């Protein structure tokens, strides 16, 4: 079966766009081919800075014929109906139609239509121009003389050539010469821009990739990454160092080079006085270079690793020298930021009011930055006020939370006040990724308590499912206050996540709260603190009205379900314990954990079977409108099985209730499991739907006691099985 090779070669594609673009090309082409009736054995995409490539194997040479039956009018229909049927079916006369009979509908015409298949080359030539013209680049541009014409091709960078060859392994390939904006698809590509700029004629993928390799182009991005990583580790090791891993930078650099060559540069050791985080980001952001450290050391070395795209005749010395000059200049700027942030601001007299508002010490640099943040009225969000107002809200909320978390109130207050101060530092202004990290360093330099410095860094955490969760009570308290203020604020102004859109990362904030509570085993009722946060916001923004508690709590429930499912909990068991007003997240998780352990044991299966039978009968009768007594009347019992079940329910309910008070859900379920035998005896000996309406209503009320008793632990009707 034939194979298809497609290459779209252009000027350099931004590294961040390459992987997705190659995936989009694969999906768009294969979807179009399958939609046109072709099948294929396999497809793989490739990408480099200057090309997107698609290798499709085992493609049908022709699409299958399509046979279709089109039902027409009855044979005794009027002439106009028959003419319309002939036009729609593409028949020249009614004699070409077939007559089918139906016992109910009589005889009617049917057209047997055969649509012949098409050659794969024709299909490819038809679908490719539209795919290229409508390619979903995040950003695109017009170029060349054709760009003056309306509707000219838009591409991420100027498109230079197209390769499209098709053919079986044992045959000569054909070029499918479709055209897009004057570029005609052919079998010619080009290698490395400097090492091999000559034209290369290709037939199919095997010789295409082989010839590109000879022309200094490593087509496979994953292989380029492996080459860079291996060479970087080796050169670091040879110099007594270890590479500081950075998967994001590795992905980016692999998208910047076609023929990677790894080199090592250096900078003055004096710059190592700058925090390692600043050095790493300076070198990474500006020069796309990796940093190194001594084996086992926490701080960096003065050696960095760069990746060139050429084999230089001087062994790369000029490249190393040029990169070194830029790195040293950038580090000089970083050293300037670092020193400036530790000095006094020039306008301290203008900061006095803010200093008094937040009890700041203007002798300390970080306090000055917090005062400056407030004085400048830096906006957090147009509807939620300034950063200074937000810090005031976080401060008040953190004070309330400290009563529950047990954190030192004075340390919590100090950490909350300084948490956002580093937003006004020059280091964070240059590298926003360092917010929190730089606050921690500057707090330590000015002598803050360690718990305060840690909380300044950690109040942003956790920022995702794999991020570290703070454990110190001060850090946990400020982190909770920060996230709850964010969630309550955006809920209050109705800026909630919708579908896949979550511009303010509110899902991440909610997951952060859940992880702080559950992994820290904190007993934290959500609703009261929603109210505290909302009250603080309304005090600053009286125009904000309404309540958010139930709606925001439902959002937390959704996030909690996702979190617990990721840990392996069954969705039905989560639903069984989750009630609309449940706001103690740790209690919910413990109930799910206990129910999961219990329901898989024999006694749990027994309880589930007996309870579900009782609740299903009761629910069915309630749905029909059957009368159910408001309370059980022992005088209406006629059989010992009724009396035994009633007594068993009373004992089990009381034992379960006492266990729940102690938060011993396992014992509560064990107490309820003792109902299985009397329930079975009851159903074997007692007819619930007695002819006597009073007895029937009383027996249904008895089933209602079973539902009520078990409902204190979980809604067993929601459990599968």
Automatic annotation (TrEMBL):
The gene is glyS. It is found in: Cytoplasm. One of its GO terms (biological process) is arginyl-tRNA aminoacylation. PROSITE patterns: AA_TRNA_LIGASE_II_GLYAB (PS50861). It is an enzyme of class 6 (ligase). Its EC number is 6.1.1.14. The keyword Flavoprotein does not apply. This is Glycine--tRNA ligase beta subunit. Keywords: Aminoacyl-tRNA synthetase, ATP-binding, Cytoplasm, Ligase, Nucleotide-binding, Protein biosynthesis. GO terms for molecular function: arginine-tRNA ligase activity; ATP binding; glycine-tRNA ligase activity. Tetramer of two alpha and two beta subunits. PANTHER family: GLYCINE--TRNA LIGASE, CHLOROPLASTIC_MITOCHONDRIAL 2, GLYCYL-TRNA SYNTHETASE.
């Amino acid at each position: 079966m034939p194979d298809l090779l497609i290459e779209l070669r252009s000027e350099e594609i931004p590294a961040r766009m390459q992987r997705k673009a190659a995936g989009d090309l694969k999906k768009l082409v294969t979807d179009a081919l399958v939609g046109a009736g072709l099948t294929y054995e396999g497809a793989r995409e490739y990408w480099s800075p200057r090309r997107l490539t698609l290798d499709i194997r085992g493609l049908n040479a022709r699409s299958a014929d399509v046979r279709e039956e089109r039902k027409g009018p009855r044979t005794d229909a009027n002439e106009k109906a028959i003419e319309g049927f002939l036009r729609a079916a593409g028949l020249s006369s009614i004699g070409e139609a077939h007559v089918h009979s139906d016992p109910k509908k009589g005889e009617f015409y049917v057209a047997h239509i055969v649509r012949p298949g098409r050659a794969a080359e024709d299909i490819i030539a038809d679908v490719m121009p539209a795919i290229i013209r409508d390619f979903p680049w995040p950003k695109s541009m017009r170029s060349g003389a054709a760009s003056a014409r309306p509707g000219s091709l838009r591409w991420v960078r100027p498109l230079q050539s197209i390769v499209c060859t098709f053919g079986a392994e044992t045959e000569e390939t054909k070029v499918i010469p479709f055209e897009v904006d004057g570029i005609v698809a052919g079998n010619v590509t080009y290698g490395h821009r400097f090492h091999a700029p000559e034209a290369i004629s290709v037939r199919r993928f095997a010789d295409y990739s082989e010839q590109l390799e000879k022309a200094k182009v490593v087509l496979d991005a994953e292989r380029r990454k492996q080459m860079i990583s291996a060479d970087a580790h080796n050169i670091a090791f040879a110099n007594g160092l270890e590479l500081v891993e950075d998967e994001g930078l590795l992905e980016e650099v692999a998208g910047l080079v076609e023929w990677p060559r790894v080199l090592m540069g250096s900078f003055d050791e004096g710059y190592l006085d700058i925090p390692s985080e600043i050095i790493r980001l300076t070198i990474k952001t500006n020069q796309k270079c990796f940093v190194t450290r001594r084996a086992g050391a926490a701080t960096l070395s003065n050696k960095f690793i760069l990746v060139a795209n050429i084999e230089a005749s001087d062994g790369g010395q000029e490249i190393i020298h040029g990169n070194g000059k830029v790195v040293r200049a950038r580090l000089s700027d970083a050293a300037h930021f670092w020193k400036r942030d530790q000095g006094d601001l020039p306008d301290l007299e203008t900061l006095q009011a803010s200093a008094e508002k937040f009890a700041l010490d203007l002798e300390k640099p970080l306090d000055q930055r917090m005062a400056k943040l407030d004085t400048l009225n830096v906006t957090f969000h147009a509807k939620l006020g300034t950063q200074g107002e937000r810090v005031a809200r976080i401060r008040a909320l953190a004070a309330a939370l400290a009563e529950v978390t047990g954190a030192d109130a004075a340390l919590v207050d100090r950490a909350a006040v300084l948490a956002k101060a580093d937003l006004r530092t020059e280091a964070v202004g240059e590298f926003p990724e360092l917010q929190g990290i730089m606050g921690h360093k500057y707090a330590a330099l000015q002598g803050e308590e360690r718990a305060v410095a840690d909380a300044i860094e950690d109040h942003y955490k956790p920022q995702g499912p794999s991020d570290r969760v703070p454990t110190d009570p001060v850090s946990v308290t400020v982190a909770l206050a920060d996230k709850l203020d964010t969630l309550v604020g955006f809920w209050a102004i109705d800026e909630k996540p919708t579908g896949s859109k979550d511009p303010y990362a509110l899902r991440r904030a909610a997951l952060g709260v859940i992880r702080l509570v559950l992994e820290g085993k904190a007993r934290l009722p959500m609703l009261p603190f929603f109210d505290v946060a909302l009250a603080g916001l309304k005090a600053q923004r009286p125009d904000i009205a309404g309540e958010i508690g139930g709606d925001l709590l439902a959002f937390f429930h959704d996030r909690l379900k996702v979190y617990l499912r990721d840990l392996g909990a069954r969705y039905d068991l989560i639903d069984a314990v989750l009630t609309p007003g449940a706001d103690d997240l740790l209690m919910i998780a413990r109930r799910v954990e206990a129910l999961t352990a219990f329901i898989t044991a024999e006694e749990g299966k027994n309880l589930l079977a007996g309870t579900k039978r009782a609740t299903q009968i009761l629910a069915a009768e309630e749905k029909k409108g059957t009368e159910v007594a408001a309370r059980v009347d022992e005088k209406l019992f006629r059989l010992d099985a009724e009396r035994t079940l009633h007594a068993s329910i009373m004992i089990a309910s009381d034992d379960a209730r006492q266990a729940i008070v102690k938060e011993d859900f396992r014992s509560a379920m064990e107490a309820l499991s003792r109902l299985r035998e009397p329930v079975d005896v009851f159903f074997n000996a007692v007819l619930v739907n007695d002819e006597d309406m009073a007895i029937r209503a009383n027996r249904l009320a008895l089933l209602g006691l079973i539902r009520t008793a078990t409902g204190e632990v979980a809604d067993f009707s929601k459990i599968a099985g």
